[in-house]
C-alpha cells in the first residue's frame, strides 16, 4: 500500500486541479465578452450620375468702330440739371496713351537734426523722485514736460525739460511763466531727437 504522504500528495493535487477548473466558473458567473462597438464609416459615398454640368460659353469680342464726329453723352444727376460731355476720337486715343511721368529728384534726409526743435531745461536732479514730482506738477499746469533719461542707471542725473517745440519764441515766452510756477530758472536748449 502507498504511504500516507503519497496519499495526501495525490489528494492535494486533485483538489488543486478541481479548484483551477471549476472556481473561475463559480466566481465569474455569466461569461460576458465586452467588445467596443463603433459605427463603420463607408469608404465612398454613393453618387448619382444624374447631375448635369453646364458649359460656360467663350466670350465674344466685337470690333467697334468709333465715329469720326464728336459724340454727346447726357448724364442724369438728381442735384443738377443734365450735363453734356463731348467725347472725340482724339480724346479717346489720348486717354489710351501711356502717361509719362518725370521722376522727381530724391532729396537726402537731414542727418543733423540739431536744428529741429527747442526745449526749456529747468534743472538737473540727483533724485529721480523729485524730478518726477516736478514733471507731474508741470503736466497738471498744461505743459509738455519730460524727464531724461527715461530708464535711469545707477549714478545718472535726471534732467527735467519742457517741450520740445519748433518755435523758439514760444518757449522763450514760457520761461518766465515756468519760473513763477516752479521757482527754477530755465534755459533754452536745442533738442536732439536722437539723443535727448
Automatic annotation (TrEMBL):
Membrane-spanning residues: 6-27
GO biological process: cytokinetic process
SPOR domain mapped to chain residues: 112-191
Pfam family, one: SPOR
Keyword Electron transport: no
InterPro entries linked to this entry: Cell_div_SPOR-domain, SPOR-like_dom, SPOR-like_sf
Keywords assigned: Cell cycle, Cell division, Membrane, Transmembrane, Transmembrane helix
Extent of the signal sequence: none
Keyword flag Ribosomal protein: no
Listed GO CC annotations: cell division site; cell septum
GO MF term (any one): peptidoglycan binding
Protein name listed in UniProt: Cell division protein DedD
Amino acid at each position: 500500500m502507498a504511504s500516507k504522504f503519497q496519499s495526501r500528495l495525490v489528494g492535494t493535487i486533485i483538489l488543486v486541479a478541481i479548484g483551477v477548473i471549476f472556481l473561475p466558473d463559480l466566481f465569474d458567473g455569466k461569461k460576458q465578452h465586452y467588445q467596443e462597438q463603433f459605427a463603420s464609416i463607408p469608404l465612398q459615398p454613393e453618387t448619382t450620375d444624374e447631375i448635369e454640368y453646364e458649359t460656360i460659353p467663350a466670350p465674344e469680342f466685337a470690333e467697334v468702330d468709333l465715329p469720326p464726329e464728336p459724340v454727346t453723352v447726357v448724364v442724369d444727376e438728381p442735384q443738377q440739371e443734365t450735363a453734356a460731355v463731348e467725347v472725340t476720337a482724339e480724346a479717346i486715343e489720348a486717354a489710351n496713351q501711356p502717361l509719362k511721368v518725370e521722376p522727381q529728384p530724391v532729396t537726402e534726409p537731414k542727418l543733423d537734426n540739431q536744428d529741429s526743435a527747442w526745449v526749456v531745461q529747468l534743472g538737473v536732479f540727483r533724485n529721480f523722485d523729485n524730478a518726477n514730482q516736478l514733471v507731474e506738477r508741470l503736466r497738471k499746469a498744461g505743459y509738455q514736460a519730460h524727464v531724461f533719461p527715461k530708464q535711469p542707471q545707477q549714478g545718472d542725473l535726471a534732467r527735467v525739460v519742457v517741450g520740445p517745440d519748433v518755435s523758439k519764441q514760444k518757449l522763450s515766452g514760457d520761461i518766465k511763466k515756468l519760473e513763477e510756477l516752479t521757482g527754477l530758472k530755465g534755459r533754452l536748449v536745442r533738442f536732439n531727437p536722437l539723443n535727448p
